[in-house]
UniProtKB/TrEMBL annotation:
One of its GO terms (biological process) is regulation of transcription by RNA polymerase II. It comes from Homo sapiens. This is RB transcriptional corepressor like 1. InterPro entries: RB_fam (IPR028309).
């Protein structure tokens, strides 16, 4: 009986995160693949760590990583890494002012508008 309550709360958080992520993706005009990857990453991280603060802020971080990992074919035979959504746009859409975001593995940068 007590085991069902945390599971139900976790499912509610993930459902709310999905709705928040959908709103962010609509505002940023993002593809479904990046959105799905961001939600999967958020869910995996939330399962292993205790995330404090606004869910939207954590979603913005996972969305940034998903955007950086995306690969888009170009007109020639080349590819473009990233989907051209800037960190600034993601942070503004998530209403995040001043944060620590990973730029690459092991490297952190502080952003303040």
């Amino acid at each position: 009986m007590f085991e069902d309550k945390p599971h139900a709360e976790g499912a509610a958080v993930v459902a709310a995160a999905g709705e928040a992520l959908q709103a962010l993706c609509q505002e940023l005009n993002l593809d479904e693949g990046s959105a799905a990857e961001a939600l999967d990453d958020f869910t995996a991280i939330r399962g292993n760590y205790s995330l404090e603060g606004e869910v939207t802020h954590w979603l913005a971080c996972s969305l940034y990583v998903a955007c950086r990992k995306s690969i888009i074919p170009t007109v020639g035979k080349g590819i473009m890494e990233g989907n051209c959504v800037s960190l600034t746009r993601i942070l503004r859409s998530a209403k995040l002012r001043g944060c620590c975001c990973p730029m690459s593995p092991g490297q952190l940068t502080f952003w303040q508008p």
